[in-house]
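User: I'm curious whether this sequence folds into something compact or stays loose and floppy. Could you predict its structure so I can see for myself?
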Amino acid sequence: MMMSNPKRLHPIAAVANFLKQLKELIVPFVIFVVFGSRGGNGEIIQLVITAGILIAVFIFGILSWLRYTYRLEEGELRIEYGVLIRKKRYIPLERIQSLDLSEGLLQRPFGLVKMKVETAGSSESGDAEAVLTAITRQDADLIQQAFSSAKNKSSESMGEIASGIQPRKVIYKISRGQLLLLASTSGGVGVVISAVFAFVFQFEEIIPYKKVFAGLEGFIANGVVFVSILVFIGFLIAWIIALVGSMLKYADFTLRKTEKELIITRGLLEKRQMTIPLHRIQAIQISENLVRQPFGLATVYIESAGGSLEDNESARVMVLPIVKRSRIAGLLKPHLPEYELQPGFFKAPKRALGRYVWRGVLGIMPLVLAPILFFRPWGYFSLLLLVFSLAWSYLKYKDAGWDISSLQLSLRYRGIIRTTVFMRKNRIQSLTMSESYFQKRRSLATIEAIAMSGTGGTGGRVPDLDRKEVYAIYKWYSHTGVNRNMPVNNKKRS
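Assistant: Here's the prediction. I'll summarize afterward.
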């Protein structure tokens, strides 16, 4: 039987263990070095202790590698590990939800991969069920084939599985132009700036920020143009960092399909492979941000039942990073025929527009009034926020919609991004119909549907739809049956 004998990870796993332990100790280690003893024998003692910790961590990494073995036996992935206490973990292949592969800077030079094993139990606990830090590509393929065989309840033997790999049809492969467009229109700039601020203010106990800002106050007051240029340069640098980071992350993005799975590979410095069993798909989501929507571009995600607290990306997987919205159905429909990806949406009634506008005005009003009261006359520019709020409220009203196609519920709504979500009836965990006092007066209601995804849920909430239409959706989900033409025959689809 293949891989029935215990195997060790590649020796580079010992280095990975050392770096992982060092990462966990970095905060107390830095505190010890910065605030340790000063002068005389104290520095020598500090140096000896530091060297001792590093040696101990490195030895522990080697021992962890020596004591870690894995094998496939009797339909299980069997792992034994532990330095002081020997532990055994047997994972039935049919319980595995997904196997995610990645090639980091440590693995790639040796032709190795890192494999994360996800099960339903790992989603609840927040950790992967098992992580094989450094294994050969051949062993990874054998484990994947054994996993696929267990899922498909194949009668093939392990030896027959190893003899061939399932054919993989390429659905989508990102081009250089698409990669550049994806990176340049992503929201990574805000993430970079937030990360810089979070890092800098970790040292507020050491760096006297108040004194620094006080010293710069006069300079800023007399150098508005110069400060504006610095701010522009800062944002430009953040945009370039985000651009490069996104291009490295999504380089060579490819979506393939086997008989039972979708397989995604991506990355330049760190190659990653994610597997999505088709039967684990909970919903499909189309996202259109403000930059891409005017050009008819969108991003498609698949919500899966896999994932964990530490790796929620395994639950919400990007399958089409950037694509013309008109092409989405043509790309995915042949491979996911049960989903209707071009429904005609029923829109919110005209009487709901006032509620959308009123909510937007109430939300923005404090930001409009405060500058007018305390920073006149420049504060009057805050009235532009009111104009922006009115336009935004109209967009939210215009984009709100729903549709029922056979056994599928489709919802469309807008926050900052316009989102369209498609959920099969048997995947919907909960569906809620709600009415406030003011909604009742206008015969309106709110519909919210949730499908399970990773450790939480996915779905959508669309407020202020026609009450009869919301009731029709509720009846459809409640298995009582509904003649769609009765409550909605006077509506037009968009």
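Summary: The mean pLDDT is 80. The CA atoms of residues 76 and 92 lie 4 Å apart.
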